Input
Amino acid sequence: YQWPSPQYDALELTLYEGQSPTGQIPADVTEECGSRVSQDGPPIAAEWLRLAYSDMATHNATDGIGGLDASIFYEFSRPENVGAGNLDTLIDFANSPTTLVSRADIIAMGVIWGVASCGGPPLAFRGGRVDAFEAGRFGVPQPQEDLQTHIEEFKLQGFTQTEMISLVACGHTIGGVRNMDFPNIVPSPDGPNSTLADGFDSTIQKYDFTIVSEYLAGTTQDPLVVVPNVTLRSDLKIFSSDGNVTMKRYRFHTYESMNSPTSYIRTCTSLLERLINTVPSDVQLTEEIVFLPFKVRRAEITVINDNQLILHVDVRIQWPAGIVQNITMFWCDRRGPSANCADGTFWFELGDPASRDVVVEDNGGAGFVLQDTLIAPHVAFVAGIGAAPPFQFEWTAIAGVLDGTADTVPQVRMTDMSVPFTSLVPAPAPAIPPPVNRTLTMTLNTSLPAVPGYTFYTTPIIGFESIMLDFAVENGGVHFELNFQSVNDGADEDFTLSTFGKKALPHNI
Ligand code: HEM
Output
């Protein structure tokens, strides 16, 4: 890893901080394995896991088409995707994707956040999934199908019969079956359309081995095992399809073992990682995204107090609790003792400068280098637009160009990945628009206060919430970019065009 790695940086931020660069905080929704329905009801995490499986389940290992590609969002009206949890999941994730973190990546992260929030294992994450913007093939298993059909379906998804048994047990450990979705499996004493759910095991908010232990003990209440209509007992058909060998097996060294808490978790870790990594064969996933103990989250040359140019850097540092550390930042500019900039634009020393234990963070020796041709990305909120939904918003995007820059005025590429609220109405299923891409040429804006050495340009930006902006300018054939600027990340709060420049700098550590 070396900074800047825009895709890695964005995936890492979204995965580990649970917050997308557009200011959405999707991971919080599943905090403490919470439920939407009631305090001890089926958890939101279960809805996210089921949706991820249903999205992946249409993968065809023979021709490599389909997989975890977010096509599920266009497939809700199919009988194989019955489930109130699906639309709720779409709403949870609607405005979190960005140009560098796809809808399908968010679905995969949902499995990781959800499983972890219910006490399950940490799962490795790789990014780079590519979204489909239309429905794909059919193929999500349904309870009434016969065993042979299930075996064929899982084989197409890339799983053997043994793996099918384990994967179903790895899914049906949180959540359950709802009356409103499957009244033929879960009848409700309260009448039709009840949110009442029967859990797969007695610990529906815990990602644990209980699904297996209760099945083997004969005490299970899993509706897909005990429903009176034997045709609908898909879990029973699957779990017992090899004479219960897989469910009973305990072999410490294999990933097929299910019959102990630790071997269950080990098997499920491996299978759930395969689930989220089952993507169309032409999609290349990134390396594993690991947490960065030292991260430059944002670095920019920008403007404060109308006319002062500053270098603004946000860093995130991990260090053991209770230990006091100093961080010293060094930087160079066009003047002063470090004017040659041989060590990069900025770098850091961590630790107690008085002692010898100083760690230098200099981007692996390269220094953190910032160009100063195109600077000061600001996005100023202007107003909400429209009297009725879907509401849009207007912002003004601002960038400064170094005087003497030869060729063109800057341009902004705007990508809006939002799912407007009105498109979520399921009639018969939500119609989610594909991302909006627009390239806007900025115009000279002399009404902004002068900042010596720079000329400023602006352009209006109109859209919904999940907007990312990529600024670019050419100078003598060289291309300069300021990428992945959000209109909505909270960084420019309280900033309007009339008070050009950020007012206060967060500098507390
Ligand atoms: C033959 C294969 C499968 C069948 C027939 C099946 C069927 C079902 C059914 C009927 C429900 C109830 C949904 C509702 O009431 O809204 C359900 C829920 C669920 N399924 Fe499966 N499933 C299968 C495989 C899997 C797999 C492989 C996973 C994940 C690894 C999984 C994860 C879940 C989860 C987490 C829920 C709970 C959802 C909630 O509580 O909101 N399922 N499944």
About this structure: The chain is about 20% helix and 20% strand. The pocket of protoporphyrin IX containing FE is lined by residues 42, 46-47, 49-50, 53, 83, 85, 141-143, 150, 167-168, 170-172, 174-178, 181-182, 234, 238, 275 (CB under 6 Å). Confidence is low (pLDDT under 50) at residues 490-496, 502-509.
